[in-house]
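User: Show me an example of a complex going from sequences to structure tokens.

Assistant: Sure. Here are the input components:
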Amino acid sequence: DQQVKQNSPSLSVQEGRISILNCDYTNSMFDYFLWYKKYPAEGPTFLISISSIKDKNEDGRFTVFLNKSAKHLSLHIVPSQPGDSAVYFCAASASSSSNYKLTFGKGTLLTVNP
Amino acid sequence: DTEVTQTPKHLVMGMTNKKSLKCEQHMGHRAMYWYKQKAKKPPELMFVYSYEKLSINESVPSRFSPECPNSSLLNLHLHALQPEDSALYLCASSPPRGPVTEAFFGQGTRLTVV
């Protein structure tokens, strides 16, 4: 049972436009969400996170939105740059759990075309 | 220092070999993790150490043996692996549970079992 779902395996956008990556979750206990960026043969790099007490968190070109009622979050990148081309993973954790476990989605490959 | 350092970066081993993967962080993080990632798949949690004690073993075969000698080091001892164990092995660490729970990942060890 996949508790974190990224239903779009890939996304292609033009440089300068907005990239929107989506993520859905099923576990109501999840209350902390993270986005990671990954280049081939490298470890994931933390991008941005959001706690369930917020509905928006912004860091430069990256904004994460959380809709708790829909169990949905999205990552907005604006403006998109060719260097943003990578696989983006959504991950979730439950602070009530003592085991620090992160559950990852399958990832979305973002390609930003010059 | 915001790095998680993994050695070696690449490892080729035979099915009868014994080898070890090493991971080090100096961020004062008290949770450390081993993940396994196959191509085009999300990272899969293997083990979690919390305050140097094993807190999660995700039903990993005994041919993988984790060790946490101190709060900065995490090892993964490998013995009698199978070709299907070939993957990118990622180490991560995170702060004690609180408002911020990002896991920082190392660059990974690309393991090939021949």
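The lines above are the inputs; the final block is the predicted structure for all two components together. The CA atoms of residues 1 and 80 of chain B lie 35 Å apart.
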